[in-house]
Amino acid sequence: MKALKIATFNINGIRSRLPGLLAWLEREQPDIACLQELKAADKDFPRQALEAAGYGCVYQGQPAWNGVAILARDSEPLEVRRGLPGMQDDSQSRYLEAAAHGVLVACLYLPNGNPQPGPKFDYKLAWFENLIMHAQGLCESEHPTVLAGDFNVVPTDQDIYNPRSWLKDALLQPESRACYQRLLGQGWIDAVRHLHPDERVYTFWDYFRNHWARNAGLRIDHLLLNRALAPYLKAAGVDAWVRNEPKASDHAPTWIELGSRKRR
């Protein structure tokens, strides 16, 4: 397998943030980029601009809400699956799988679940259950696979600046965290936490209450590697500079680097 950089980025509106997205792609040059919260119908997806920047793309848009995409540098990703198994009646665009650069990439935007309790939280847990069922086979696959996206889960209190401020939020509920741990229990490796076990790493800073300036962040964007891919993990981090740009998303891109040879 060749060396790769894979990133996930909740763009929070691809049309309004296209200049920032293109600037990030040019500066950081990920080989694969998973995008969430496109907030654009398929007809409004900026395919030409991304192709001009050197990226082939597959996408599942939705007007005003949701939407996911997978970009591949100097390559055309091959779509494998559109929509999460078990959620055939789901009208929300949240899951896309594609093969790119020798890796199977699953891009997901897990439901937020707020307010909880209520139907939105029930939907979050139902979606999570179907993800866990589908992910089992992906984890056991001999093909290198990554689950990348906005999971809308703060795994532990280490992944948030102050859990007391978010105790009632769906992102921190015991049920949400338990689902995430069940996913890891299949054998997935949480790349960022695996390489930075003791660090405060954040991927999201709310627009309100000066969260960015205070570095009052949360880690909710994750890259999970299956057994076939995990041995190649070389580095992982967050392009936090993107969050400081004009008209920025409230998320920053999270990335991994994979070596061409397995780590011993």
TrEMBL record:
Q: What is its EC number?
A: 3.1.11.2
- Endonuclease/exonuclease/phosphatase domain mapped to chain residues: 7-251
Q: Does the keyword Hydrolase apply?
A: yes
User: Which cofactor(s) does the record list?
Assistant: Mg(2+)
Q: Which UniProt keywords apply?
A: Hydrolase, Magnesium, Metal-binding
Enzyme class, UniProt record, top EC level: hydrolase
InterPro entries recorded for this chain? AP_endonuc_1, Endo/exonu/phosph_ase_sf, Endo/exonuclease/phosphatase, ExoIII-like
Q: Which family does it belong to?
A: Belongs to the DNA repair enzymes AP/ExoA family.
Record's protein name: Exodeoxyribonuclease III
Gene name as annotated: xth
